[in-house]
Amino acid sequence: MSDPAAGTPLFELPDELAIDTDVARRLIGDFIRGQLAQAGFERALVGLSGGIDSAVVAYLVADAIGPDRLHCVLMPYRSSSEASVVDAREVVGRLGCSSELVEITPMVDAIFGVDDVPGAFGRGGLAASPVRRGNVMARMRMAVLYDRSVTWGGLVVGTGNKTESLIGYTTLFGDSACAFNPIGDLYKSQVRQLAVALGVPEAIVRKAPSADLWPGQTDEAEAGFSYPQLDRLLFWMIDRRRSRDELIGLGFDTALVDRVERMVAGAEFKRQVPPIAKLGPRTTGVDYLYPRRRPGSARR
Amino acid sequence: VVSFVEESADHRLFIAAALVEDGRIRHVHRKLYLPTYGLFDERRFFAAGDLLRAVPSRLGVGVGIGICEDFWHLSVPQVLALDGAHILINVSSSPGRDLAATNEVGLGTATSWWTLMRTYAQLTTSVVVFVNRVGVEESISFWGGSQVIGPTGRSLFSAPMFDEGLFFVDVEPGDIRRERIALPLLRDERPELIVREFERIVAERAGLETDATADAGAAPGFDVATEVSLRPAGTTTR
């Protein structure tokens, strides 16, 4: 049987987004070690979904501190695809790190109910929209990770990429919650490039990105544009500071430019620390400005 | 050369670097240019220095010290060289960024710095010693890549990127002499011309003199005539 994917590139990488992956690995490795050292931790944990972002982060962490200091947590819901768990297990097997599987199904179902049996939200919960369910799933996973942060004695490493952060395709206090994020300044296409350099299993690099919140869901079908297209647009819009007219002049579709500009502006609140009403003489984030990590801040 | 934060008697905080020889401080340079843009926030916390001096070293050469952003201003290496520096030393905490694969060494910041340092070495016919920090702080990675560049622009030494180290590099003062006589750029500099033109520009920018090169109709201090009329201070509009 011939492999239908044979001979096709693993992924599409717009020229302007190509990065030097050796330098990226070096910087990220130092970053991970530096973050842990400054906080006084030696271990880290990653929520492994079976997707490319968390796989890349697991590889980067294992690279930086050794697989024995990494704990991966698989947290499927009953509707999660079987392939997600298989792919996540493949990452764990290849890295040789410790792992565990925590089903979030009872947690989520206890809230929304299941099969006409109401949960904590009463009958109304049974009709909850996919967005509400997705948000609760992401926040249950966050709760599991932060509990395991205590039992494993390690920091939760973020797995969100720059593309989804910019357009707001992330759950506040859910998948975006972490102690530090090594890939948050890489567009999806760049995460793919890094994944190949790291030797992440090909099946994970090839498969269509998905939040895996319902069967058959893919990011690109849900959003209506492809990642390479979106990454290029965001790169010119954000990194290269091109105006709307300049972006259209570069050949980007007007409707897409307008839509993405709205998404980026509308997601600003997800990227920033909530403002505190300024009342006292020194206020956190306003005029009480210290680095997160400084002498005395480490746990030990 | 050691860098530190200096608090002056009147309680201004400076980013400073000292030349220390034989157990005593020979010279303190206070950082002149404090980047406060993009990822930088220095002017918020620090005062800018007001002195730029080259000083003699016991090694028999003149030394000029700059701190990081100081060397992103063309006049700094030039003034130091004209003031007698043979060796220009820049201590830096340069945050690495831009991993575009098209970069020479995979880090845009490194290429920019090395290009500038090499240019200064050539244009001032001096030895340039670029010493850059290594390590991670918060989001920022300092990338090392320190260099010593000869007066012809040839690299005499390159430290590895991202790795700490203590390195010794021999510099031959005769090379500086040879280059300065063969390529007398410093001899031919025209500081009096530069001073005159700078004074003119300063006066024009302040609106104290008519701008000789400005558009007709441009308001005092502006080179370009704007469409919006600028009203004299004190007038109001409704």
Description:
The complex is a heterodimer of chains A (300) and B (238). Chain A has 300 residues and is mainly alpha-helical. Chain A has helices at residues 21-39, 52-65, 82-95, 105-112, 122-126, 130-152, 162-167, 188-198, 202-206, 219-223, 227-239, 244-249, 254-266, 268-271; strands at 43-47, 70-74, 98-101, 154-156. Chain A has 14 helices and 4 strands. In chain A, strands 3-2-1-4 form a 4-stranded parallel sheet, sandwiched between helices. Chain A is globular. Chain B is of the alpha+beta class and 238 residues long. Chain B contains 4 helices and 11 strands; from the N terminus they run βββββαβαβββββαα. A 6-stranded mixed sheet of chain B has the order 4-5-6-7-10-11, with helices on one face. A 3-stranded antiparallel sheet of chain B has the order 1-2-3, with no helix packed on it. In chain B, strands 8-9 form a two-stranded antiparallel sheet. Chain B is globular, with a radius of gyration of 21 Å. The model of chain B has no long low-confidence stretch (mean pLDDT 92). The interface between A and B is medium-sized, with 17 and 18 residues.
Task: Report the average pLDDT across residues of chain B.
Answer: 92
Radius of gyration of chain A: 20 Å
Beta-strand share of residues of chain B: 15-25%
Helix content of chain A: 40-55%
Annotation field: number of helices of chain A: 14
The strand count of chain A comes to 4
Which chains share the greatest interface? A-B, 17 and 18 residues
Q: What is the mean pLDDT of chain A?
A: 93
**Overall 3D shape of chain A:** globular
The ordered H/E elements of chain A are: HEHEHEHHHEHHHHHHHH
How would you classify the quaternary structure?
heterodimer
Rg estimate of chain B, integer Å = 21 Å
Low-confidence segments of chain B: none
Structural class of chain B: alpha+beta
- Number of alpha- plus pi-helical segments of chain B: 4
N- to C-terminal distance of chain A: 57 Å
